[in-house]
Amino acid sequence: MATKVVKFGGSSLADANQFIKVANIIKADPSRKYVVPSAPGKRSSKDTKVTDMLYACYDTAVRGGDFIPMFNEIKKRYTDIIDGLGLDISLDSEFETIKHSFMARAGRDYAASRGEYLNGKILSSYLGFAFVDAAEVIYFGENSKLDLEQTCRAVKERLDKVGNAVIPGFYGSMPNDTVKTFSRGGSDITGSIVAAAMNADLYENWTDVSGFLVCDPRIVPNPEPIQTITYHELRELAYMGAGVLHEEAIFPVRKAGIPINIKNTNKPDDPGTMIVEQAGCDDCKFTITGIAGHRGFAAITIEKDMMNSELGFGRKVLEVFENHGISFEHMPSGIDTMSIVVRLDELAECEEDVIKSLRDAVSPDKIEIDRDIALIAIVGRGMKSQRGTAARIFAALAHAKINVKMIDQGSSELNVIVGIGNEYFEAAIKAIYAIFVSERL
Ligand code: ASP
């Protein structure tokens, strides 16, 4: 039988009703053997995630404040779920332990991790699956980085012994046995690790949207869903800010050749988005797979006669940015010019220093800074086989009266990045969507 690892996000497990949906999904397919839950998320847009409540509660405890009212509110989130499911279990002793650990300052990571730990306890009891504490199988090294090899070995050894299991997301343990969490949204990473360790056929990541959309629905209403996307394309888009899945969740499954299926707990029949290593273009509905972008960039353009023959010029320029802790996004260049595109907020902190260091390092003829740049990435494996894609992008922008300040196309022909003024950000995405997607429907 195939093996699937299924991860459910916080909104999928926010209350008893959501738990029932989750259980139905799991029971509908016996290959859904290993389940990774998040902590209860928001039940409505004004609600607070349990993880945020735990951080706030622990911070109050550490400050010596009265953390009990908040603690009781957290407890109520869980007892409401237990009662709503009609379960005959109590988490009282767990809550006592947690309370004492808060008083003993067990650490913020420990505090936050209890959100998934307790949810895992409830889910395992509701499903009748074994509970496997992530602290016993997910290991971080001395450098606080995940030890993937040791972790995979431990997960496999442990899960092989149990038929089905619930493994809470988001945390693991340090060599000194303290609890450590991944960064926010890290249950995605746990799911990916468990899938890799068990050599699963599929990693299903259940959330509250039916996968990725071609572009941001706040800009284009009801954009088309993306049915299939490659890991490579997703990186190009995620990097620009389309965050349904934690960036670091890609690595373990990708390395193991396991696809990810993003699915919607509230619409389980929707196909969602498949994330795969390789995909042809026979199934591409459109030339482009996705459009994503960000406002708030700056371009520093450096001009110097005969720059192209000055050995080490680029290295010296980039070293200046490196020394100031600024990473660069893009670097379009001409014969005697070179532009470095960076985040405006990162540059603003040390702009004068950077300019001075550039002058000292490469004695340029001129340095100009454009502080009004939004970047848009148009990504698609279908571009490679289509002539005229770039022409269509620029025609769409010209037609919308948007001036293109910068163009960058990687040689993989997977994406085109354009730089425009911040005020045209939304109009540009709409224009590109219209020409590649709306006109094809
Ligand atoms: N509960 C954690 C958070 O809110 C981790 C997760 O949900 O993936 O960030």
Describe what is shown at a glance.
The protein has helices spanning 16-27, 50-62, 68-85, 92-103, 108-127, 148-161, 187-197, 231-238, 250-256, 313-323, 344-348, 351-362, 389-399, 425-436, and strands at residues 4-8, 32-37, 130-131, 165-166, 171-173, 179-181, 202-207, 228-230, 260-264, 273-276, 290-303, 328-330, 337-343, 366-379, 406-409, 415-420. With 441 residues, it is an alpha/beta fold.
Strand content: 15-25%
Given helix and strand content, the structural type is alpha/beta
Total beta-strand segments: 16
Low-confidence stretches: none
Commentary on this structure:
The chain has 441 residues and is of the alpha/beta class. 38% of the residues lie in helices and 20% in strands. It has 14 helices and 16 strands. It has helices spanning 16-27, 50-62, 68-85, 92-103, 108-127, 148-161, 187-197, 231-238, 250-256, 313-323, 344-348, 351-362, 389-399, 425-436, and strands at 4-8, 32-37, 130-131, 165-166, 171-173, 179-181, 202-207, 228-230, 260-264, 273-276, 290-303, 328-330, 337-343, 366-379, 406-409, 415-420. The strands form three sheets. The protein has an eight-stranded mixed beta sheet, with helices on both faces. The protein has a six-stranded antiparallel beta sheet with strand order 12-13-11-14-16-15. Strand 1, helix 1 (16-27) and strand 2 (32-37) form a beta-alpha-beta unit. The chain is globular. 43% of the residues are buried. The mean pLDDT is 94.
Features:
single chain; 441 residues; alpha/beta; 8-stranded mixed sheet; 6-stranded antiparallel sheet; binds aspartic acid
